[in-house]
Write a structure and sequence with these properties.
GO terms for molecular function: peroxiredoxin activity. This protein is of the alpha+beta class. It is built from 6 helices and 11 strands.
């Protein structure tokens, strides 16, 4: 069972490729994306880390900090970074946690509490559950959890789309429909009464059913 949406993301201290961090302090008033990998020098993760490095300006634009994690040591991350740059055209430009004591993986319920031993003797299959994406808000609450199998690379365009929705719906009392993209119509949240909605949207709304009230995306 993974951590539920709406709970406070566990705080921790960890060694990273950019030095020691305290997670909540590192997030500060930003949003954060914490994403984990079963093992260094694995093929799918190599493509993911390179893809995310190229997309970092898009996350920066949205005020989202990036943090990677693998149970291998930080010096291995540094060597892996060279391979990622060579094969993907970009090296990680964000910190990577060396979770060699499994502390973070256990806190985030990606590995059983009983996990122990030398991380270098573990195979990717031993760590196959360390394939999560956590989106965390400035309030340090978990907003989204995605769990991927080892054989399926993550879709970071979808993660950006989700962040756009999360940030919009945190600011305005709306929800986003299926396959929504930035700039498209949204739905007035069910918590907003019709009387309230009339003051927020004096121009009215489309209502194919009483429980579906469609308006342009708020600015």
């Amino acid at each position: 069972m993974t951590l539920p949406i709406g709970t406070t993301a566990p705080d921790f201290e960890a060694e990273t490729t950019e030095g020691k961090i305290k997670f909540h302090d590192w997030i500060g008033n930003s949003w954060a994306l914490l994403f984990s990998h079963p093992k260094d020098f694995t093929p799918v993760c190599t493509t993911e880390l390179g893809a995310l490095a190229k997309l970092k300006p898009e996350f920066d634009k949205r005020g989202v900090k990036l943090m990677g994690l693998s149970v291998d040591p930080v010096d291995n991350h540094a060597r892996w970074s060279d391979d990622i740059k060579e094969t993907q055209g970009a090296a990680p430009n964000y910190p990577m946690i060396g979770d060699t004591d499994y502390n973070v993986s256990k806190l985030y319920e990606m590995l059983p509490a009983s996990t122990s031993g030398d991380p270098l003797t573990r195979t990717p299959a031993d760590n196959q559950t360390v394939r999560n994406v956590f989106i965390i808000g400035p309030d340090k609450k978990i907003k989204l959890v995605l769990v991927y199998p080892m054989t399926t690379g993550r879709n970071f365009q979808e993660i950006l789309r989700v962040i756009d929705s999360l940030q919009l719906t945190a600011k305005h009392r709306v929800a986003t429909p299926a396959d929504w993209s930035q700039g498209e119509d949204v739905i007035i949240a069910g918590s907003v009464s019709n009387d309230e909605a009339k003051t927020i949207y004096p121009q009215g709304w489309k209502e194919p059913k009483p429980y579906i009230r469609i308006v342009p995306q708020p600015k």
